Amino acid sequence: MKKDLNQLLEFGIINIDKPSGPTSFTVSDYVHKLLGVRKTSHFGTLDPQVTGVLPIALNRACKLTGYFIGHDKIYVGIMRIHEELKMEDIQKIINEKFIGTIKQLPPVKSRVKRALRDRNIKKFELIEQAGKDILFEAHVQAGTYIRKLISDLGDKIGGAHMLELRRTRAGIFEEKNSITLYELEETIKNNKLIDVITPGEIVREIYPIIELKNKDLKKIFTGKPIHREDLKKEYKIDSGEVVSAFSNGRFIGMYEILNNKDCYAKSKFVMQDIKN
């Protein structure tokens, strides 16, 4: 559905290209003040020195943070090895020890509990070498610490540490569609802000869609569970799955499938009417 600027500001996402230096919170707060919205939140923290994709949710889209934050991330970076080794030899060790499900202990300074966690490394490829500096790309499960990944690799090859890191993708948000803070300021000056805000409804690209009838929508907006008679058609979705609900193109909310006789799905987040 075509949305105006007020609707996008109320339920939208801006894909920021975070600069090196500020924290993710600082960037989110800057967007908050620049746009004059009630609140903002970012999808996945980047360390201050790390650059790249940092989606910022606006107002009611902040409720969607948890639905975006747990998806795969892609990074490119430069690591420095401590001993003279060929890139091909290091790649062999990576392929043997650091691809697939690995055990990772969060760094000492992390905010999470320091306990071994399983993390899925889908790709960890060395691209180019210049002396002891190696360019790499990593496609990893959300919650993977790249700096720790490089450090753990260093334990196998005589030492390594990360020099630079950039996130090029966070879930469905990509580097090519991101904008810098300066570019965001320019879009505001040129009255083109509407062109850089992604509707919150993009959540439908991640979670399966169920279509609802128009009947009883008022009750559904107050939190009423979805029953099979509310559905436009039958869906084969496993219990426990999370879905996005729509009605004639209008986003209704996020639901968990129950498949009970009396209740098909229960609400996790319901989108009330947006008043301009």
What is the string of SSEs from the N terminus onward? HEHEEHEHEEEHEEHEEHEEE
CATH class of the largest domain: Alpha Beta
CATH architecture designation of the largest domain: 2-Layer Sandwich
Helical residue percent? 10-25%
Strand residues, percent: 25-35%
How many strands in all?
A: 14
Q: Kindly state the mean pLDDT as a whole number?
A: 94
What does this structure look like?
The protein has 3 domains: 5-69 and 173-203, Pseudouridine synthase (2-Layer Sandwich), CATH 3.30.2350.10; 73-170, Alpha-Beta Plaits; 207-270, Roll (Archaeosine Trna-guanine Transglycosylase, Chain: A, domain 4), CATH 2.30.130. The two termini are 16 Å apart. The mean pLDDT is 94. The strands form 2 sheets. Strands 1, 2, 3, 4, 5, 6, 7, 8, 9 and 10 form a 10-stranded mixed beta sheet that branches. The chain has 276 residues and is α+β, with helices and mostly antiparallel strands. The longest helix is centred in the N-terminal third of the chain and has 12 residues, at 24-35. The protein contains 7 helices and 14 strands.
Strand and helix map with partners:
Blueprint: H1 5-10, E1 11-18, H2 24-35, E2 40-42, E3 51-59, H3 65-68, E4 73-81, H4 87-97, E5 100-104, E6 117-130, E7 133-140, H5 146-157, E8 160-170, E9 173-174, H6 181-189, E10 198-199, E11 209-211, H7 217-221, E12 242-247, E13 250-257, E14 265-270
Parallel strand pairs: 3-8, 11-12
Antiparallel strand pairs: 1-3, 1-10, 2-3, 4-7, 4-8, 5-6, 6-7, 8-9, 12-13, 13-14
